[in-house]
Design brief:
The chain is α+β, with helices and mostly antiparallel strands and 192 residues long. It has a single domain, classed as Lipid/polyisoprenoid-binding, YceI-like (Lipocalin, Beta Barrel). Helices cover 15% and strands 54% of the residues. A hairpin with a 2-residue loop joins strand 8 and strand 9. The N and C termini lie far apart (51 Å). The relative contact order is 0.18.
Length: 192
């Protein structure tokens, strides 16, 4: 009986260990044709802050494991956005945006991909950690994708700036106020 228990224990822990070590490594390249922008709104008009892809690292090593046919988990899949890469169209809006995200103190916005759960062909739910000004929040949102030599991954991630302890700037003695909701709109061209 002790031998049977010992064999079962060894097999169980052996299977657990091999499952943990089954993450695969891959390097992905985000192509310059990719697009990313942050859109916000004030009580007067909206604004777009477009990210210049030249500020993006070209290749990203990632680790992933497929738990189930439609579920992929990731390790170390972090996209770092240098805040200097955002251009909102004019000087005062750029200045306000960089004050909002505290880019002097925190020069990067981090987007860490945790998992993808495919819903149907060409669409999935992505789970990410977003870190802005040292505050990290987990978000789940829908993405669309196409497979091929170059994959296209697109989606819109809605954020509340208050979740990141950010204080929206007020202009003209509080008459112009930035609203709390912003969106990150992306269309990434990825080569494996």
């Amino acid at each position: 009986m002790k031998n049977v228990l010992l064999i079962v224990t060894v097999l169980f822990f052996g299977a657990f260990t091999s499952a943990q070590n089954s993450f695969q490594n891959k390097t992905v390249k985000i192509l310059p044709k990719s697009k990313l922008k942050i859109t916000g709104d004030t009580n007067i008009k909206s604004f777009d802050c477009v990210f210049d892809m030249k500020f993006l690292q070209k290749e990203y090593p990632i680790e992933y494991i497929t738990d189930e046919p439609n579920h992929v988990r990731f390790k170390n899949a972090v996209l770092g956005l240098n805040t200097k890469g955002f251009d909102c169209g004019n000087g005062p809006i750029n200045s306000d945006f960089h004050k909002l995200i505290q880019s002097e103190k925190y020069p990067h916005i981090l987007i860490e991909l945790l998992e993808i759960r495919r819903q149907q062909e060409g669409s999935a739910n992505a789970v990410v950690n977003i870190t802005i000004a040292e505050t990290r929040k987990e978000h789940t949102f829908p993405v669309e994708f196409s497979k091929g030599e170059v994959s296209n991954i697109s989606g819109i991630l809605m954020l509340d700036i208050k979740d990141f302890k950010l204080e929206p700037p007020k202009k003209l003695f509080g008459m112009i106020v930035v609203k709390d909701d912003i969106e990150i709109n992306f269309n990434l061209k990825v080569k494996k």
